[in-house]
Amino acid sequence: MRLIVNGNETNVSAETFAELLLELGYEDMPVATAVNMSVVRKKDRDIVRLKEGDRVEILVPMQGG
Amino acid sequence: MDPLQFYGVTVASRLLLGTAQYPSPAILADAITRSEADILTVSLRRESTGGSGGRDFWKLISAMGKKILPNTAGCHSAKEAITTAEMARDVFDTPWIKLEVIGNADTLQPDVFGLVEAARELCAQGFQVFPYTTDDLIVAEKLLSVGCEVLMPWGAPIGSGKGLNNRFALKAMRAHFPNVPLVVDAGLGVPSHAADAMELGYDAVLLNTAVAKAGDPAAMAEGFALAVKAGRLAYRAGAMEARDMAVPSTPVFGQPFV
Fold first, then answer.
1. A41 contacts on B by Cβ (under 8 Å)
2. In sequence order, which residues have a C-beta less than 8 Å from that of residue B85 and are 6 or more positions away?
């Protein structure tokens, strides 16, 4: 399936958000997630299913002012 | 004792510190320690491909044991800011959000219309909003009316180091909202700027670049910590009235040779 992950076209086999994080190597990182500008909370990542062309954001804590 | 509370939470320092632009993680950690800050601002960003910057940064910050104030830096619309805030709450597990809705990429001036719109929605969702705003009193009243219990007017544009560009407006804001926690956020360059804000009666200051871009960030952090304490003490002590003419401090009575 083709997704836009953090602005980059990405082909993945994951079907849920939880699987996507595993596939992309985020499994042990604190991350915030959204799809098509809607937040996907931690508790919902196992049930939210992805579909072709979804725009996914995976954000991590960073320096900020 | 001179406690400060934000949304019912007592904080141990009147200096809030940003975590960006430091020369190294070790210097960031030293600066945090010497600033004595109790609240650190952080952001959410995309991780670079194959990178671990986010994980390493969060490990360092978590180990400091400070309160976390996530921001919505870089958001140019209420919608972006609301979504970013919702994501921040999910990952940082805090209702606090430093709400920034930027209106102009060059000046980084707050879009106060988008700010009020986003603050209304976030307060309704249970967020505890720290709005980065201008010194406009009507905007401030709108922010309070939608549920904000803290106001964070700018001293000068973000990263400019100019200090308090409009002392009159900031003084008026202090007088207009005597019971609202007020934080000067942005534009401070040297510790005397922080002392100035505190002497006006501001409850705290938030800064980042002035420390991070100093020649010795950790030493500058300590300088700001001392200035914030000095300014607060001076405000509570009550400053003398300035005079136009000289007045001798040594008693005139008993002066010889007259």
1. 90
2. B70, B72, B97, B99, B118, B122, B127
Give the H/E segment covering residue B9.
Answer: strand B9-11
Size of the A and B interface in Cβ pairs below 8 Å: 99
Residue B52: count of CB within 10 angstroms of its CB: 13
DSSP label of B27: H
Interchain contact B41–A (C-beta under 8 A): yes
Shortest distance between the Cα of B123 and any Cα of chain A, in A, equals: 17
The CA distance from A7 to the nearest CA of chain B, in Å, is 9
For chain A, say whether B147 makes contact (Cβ under 8 Å): no
**Alpha carbons B245 and B235: distance in angstroms, whole number:** 23
B20 and A33 within 8 Å at the Cβ level: the answer is: no
Bridging pattern class, strands A8-11 and B67-70? unpaired
Q: B132: closest CA among B69, B195, B193?
A: B69
Query: Is B171 noted as a catalytic residue in this protein?
Result: no
ipTM of the complex as predicted: 0.91
User: pLDDT tens-digit profile of B59-116?
Assistant: 999 999 999 999 999 999 999 999 999 999 999 999 999 999 999 999 999 999 999 9
